[in-house]
Model the fold of this input.
Amino acid sequence: MEISVLGKNIDKELSLKVAELQKIMECHLATLQPCNPVFQPSNKGTLMEFTQEQLDQLINSGQRPLWLANANLSGADLSGADLAKARLLRANLSGANLSGADLTYANLSKTNLSEANLTMAAVSGANLSGANLSQANLENVDLSLTTLSKATLVEANLSKANLSEANLSEVNLNKANLSEANLSEANLSKANLSEANLNGANLRETDMSEADLTGVDLEGADTELAILPDGTVDNKI
Done:
């Protein structure tokens, strides 16, 4: 059975989910709190499931911002998707294809993005605090002005990524590839950068106070006016 929702023909099961999500968003806007038990963090292991077809229909429905908190989107194809300002907190996007997607100002707090492909995605201004991005591919991604505090990016590929003015305090970047990345004016205080690749990285005016740089070679990086782990400022020109 097919019915029309927002001018689109979609199956009954998806239409019920759209209606539920719409109610949740309206309630959230009124109360600033999640308004359905399925989205409560106390319901551990409870995830809203979508088929790829249903997900495509929801994204193309025109409904914005999309609310997909706690949704199980593992392995989903979201390449080129418009997810600007989407609510994806605590969602499972492990192994998902988000290449070229628009995630600007999206809420991805505590989201699982491990092994996800975000190459060429726009993520500027997004909230990724506490997110898991281990082994994710973030090459050439615009992450400027993002919040990544306490996120996990172990062995992530951030080559040529733009992380200027991003908040990376207490982030775990162990063995991450940050070659030629732009980290100018970023906050890396108390970050774990052990064994990370910073060859050719731009670290101008970056705050690395109390950061762990064990096994890191900064010779090929630009650290002019950066705050080093011991609190001193690199005045080398």
In short: Residues 1-8, 26-45 have pLDDT under 50 and may be disordered. The chain has two domains: 2-72, 73-237. The helical segments are 12-31, 52-59. Residues 2-72 form one domain.
